[in-house]
Amino acid sequence: MQDSTIIANMAATCNHTFLEEETVTQDAKRQSNSPTALNLPMAQPLPEQTQKYFDICQEKLGLIPNVLKAHAFDIEKLNAFSALYNNIMLADSGLSKLEREMIAVTVSSENKCFYCLTAHGAAVRELSGDPALGEALVMNYRVADLSMRQRAMLDFAVQVTKASATVEESDREVLRQAGFSDRDIWDIANTAAFYNMTNRVASSLDMRPNPEYHAQHRG
After folding, report:
1. Same domain flag for 98 and 77
2. Domain range holding 122?
């Protein structure tokens, strides 16, 4: 009886050690190959156009966002993602860049997406010049010092996130009363929907943000 107990304890210890070693191996794989939990390293070499894009990111941002690296195992997927992001976040719109980033953070807060909260929280701090606003949106947008327009926009984004099937004409009318055009409402809905998609991809694949984001634009 005593011998069997010793053997069982030894087996449990070996199994625990194996799991620890496996975790270290997985962590090393993440660090060397991919910003996600998947072993999908970037295409090598990158196409010339992609490399130029990444060089511009490095020059202007001081980093290459991990979300781009994560997509770079398949250049067509990277291009499709980048084109959609650029259209939603950078194209002409009645929504300012800050307002779109505020939607990104508020939606990501509802979904508890670590990657998007970190990256877009930094963007809100930068564009607003207000670190407190970035922190409030990350935690609970309802405590932030918002204009009526901003509050109506974020309320709608949260409704799209939590229960899009419940959106009615009266909800869209609230946005119109706050000063948004129908084109703006389209952009609010699409921005919220885009981040609901990216939140789910990032969280399900354990995508990690670039560490540089954490300290950026905190005053």
Report:
1. no
2. 94-215
21 and 129 both lie in a single domain: no
Query: CA-CA distance, 124 to 36, in Å (whole number)?
Result: 24
Number of domains into which the chain is organized? 2
User: Does a structural domain hold residue 76?
Assistant: yes
The predicted-structure confidence for 69-125, as pLDDT tens digits, reads as follows 999 999 999 999 999 999 999 999 999 999 999 999 999 999 999 999 999 999 999
Query: So what's the pLDDT on residue 7?
Result: 55
- The answer to whether residues 51 and 77 belong to one domain is yes
Question: Which 3 state secondary structure label does DSSP give 106?
Answer: helix
CA–CA distance, 77 with 70 (Å, rounded to integer): 10
Whole-angstrom Cα distance, residue 120 to residue 101? 6
The answer to whether 105 touches 121, Cβ cutoff 8 Å, is yes
Name 180's Cβ contacts closer than 8 Å, sequence gap at least 6.
94, 149, 152, 153, 188
Distances (CA, A) of 78 to 46, 147, 196, 205: 11, 36, 18, 16
